[in-house]
Amino acid sequence: MQQDLDILPLLSEESYLKAYPEDRKCRAFLEFCREGDYKAIIDMLQDDEVDEDDEDEEMGDSDQSGKEEVGIDRMLRYQDPIGDMQSGLHAAVQAQSREVAWLLLLLASNYPLLEFPPEVFQEAESMGIMRGLTEDKVDIRSLKDANGKTAEDIANEIGGVWNGWTGNGRLAI
């Protein structure tokens, strides 16, 4: 038995996942963002991509209009309903993980590709990922948490590793 362990957050999450089991992967994704584990995020996204391809083959021509935003796009833009509506970018900023922030900007924003450091592209290429079409999707930089804050607002509060990241459109639109 652990002394002074606050079990309310654990019970809240478990209760939420019982009611919304489809959010389990998205919540795991956010946890990886909070931990700064970009390799686990990439593995999860690649696994999800394989699952989507398998479903497409199995489904054939059946109408799936109700599931349009399920999968990678939904996961990348997921906001935590029991965690102040934080997105993965909010979580990465709070965790001070520039690697995860760059990954999310690459995959879920319209941030100009010419603004990315070459190392980001080299790492992405070595791991087999690249930006898909983002024009018609929500840009992760536009997401606000329950307090109306963008990831840039949180970066301004934290400072440190985020010096040079704010006021230039990198973390907010």
From TrEMBL:
Acidic residues: bias regions: 51-61
Region Disordered, residue ranges: 51-71
This protein's name: Uncharacterized protein
Species of origin: Phaeosphaeria nodorum (strain SN15 / ATCC MYA-4574 / FGSC 10173) (Glume blotch fungus)
